[in-house]
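FORM 12-B: Structure-to-Sequence Request
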């Protein structure tokens, strides 16, 4: 739904205290999926800007470091129009909010490459980030499933090296702050965003082993967004990832 409840300041303070005591971080929040900041519909776009602003406000109250955003769909427009609207919507959403003295960043997430979906390539992600750098705190979140089904090769050793060269030349390693670690139900290049349990999809375990042990991403947080088909699936997927990390 568009309207979200306000964060209780006492609960936010309690969360901050516990995070400090337990040394847990970073705190990463994902925006609601209704938000489409480059929609051709002015009504949807206005609701999206308001909804996104609310997400930023709650993230700041909670002391979150990162807020992950899907750039949205530009169906009915040109890609350049979609990029312009997305950048404008993000600027409007954060305008006047007190983020400057915080570690907060909006993370633009790459998408599965479906038609009209903004962010389906590293180039589109970096273009949006570039339009925002002087107006908002922005960085990048990459999703393994999205990267795979968009057509990038993370599976073979040679493909992984080539994909990382492309990432270095576009989004850059420093800008990537979070990886969503998800296997894929669909084939590489299929454009189908269907997440699968770690090691049980079309990617297998090796891409995650390489990624988790790649020193170029030592600064990143790794988060599983895998399915919950049975009780305990979340823990099993996290443990599967931990076993791969040296």
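FORM 12-B RESPONSE
SEQUENCE OUT:
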């Amino acid at each position: 739904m568009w309207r979200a409840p306000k964060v209780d300041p006492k609960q936010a303070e309690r969360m901050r205290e516990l995070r400090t005591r337990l040394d847990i971080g970073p705190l990463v929040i994902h925006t609601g999926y209704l938000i489409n900041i480059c929609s051709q519909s002015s009504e949807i776009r206005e609701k999206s800007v308001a909804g996104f602003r609310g997400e930023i406000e709650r993230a700041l109250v909670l002391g979150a470091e990162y807020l992950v955003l899907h750039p949205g769909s530009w169906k009915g427009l040109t890609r350049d129009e979609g990029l312009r609207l997305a950048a404008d919507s993000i600027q409007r959403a954060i305008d006047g909010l007190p983020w400057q003295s915080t570690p907060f960043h909006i993370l633009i997430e790459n998408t599965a490459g479906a038609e009209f979906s903004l962010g389906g390539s590293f180039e589109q992600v970096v273009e949006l980030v570039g339009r925002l750098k002087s107006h908002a705190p922005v960085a990048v979140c990459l999703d393994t499933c999205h990267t795979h089904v968009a057509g990038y090769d993370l599976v073979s050793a040679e493909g992984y090296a080539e994909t990382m060269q492309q990432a270095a030349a576009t989004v850059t390693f420093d800008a990537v702050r979070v990886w969503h670690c998800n296997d894929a139900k669909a084939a590489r290049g299929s454009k189908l965003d269907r997440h699968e349990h770690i090691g049980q999809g079309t990617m297998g375990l090796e891409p995650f082993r390489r990624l988790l042990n790649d020193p170029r991403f030592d600064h990143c947080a790794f988060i599983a967004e895998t399915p919950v088909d049975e009780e305990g699936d979340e823990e099993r997927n996290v443990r599967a990832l931990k076993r791969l990390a040296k």
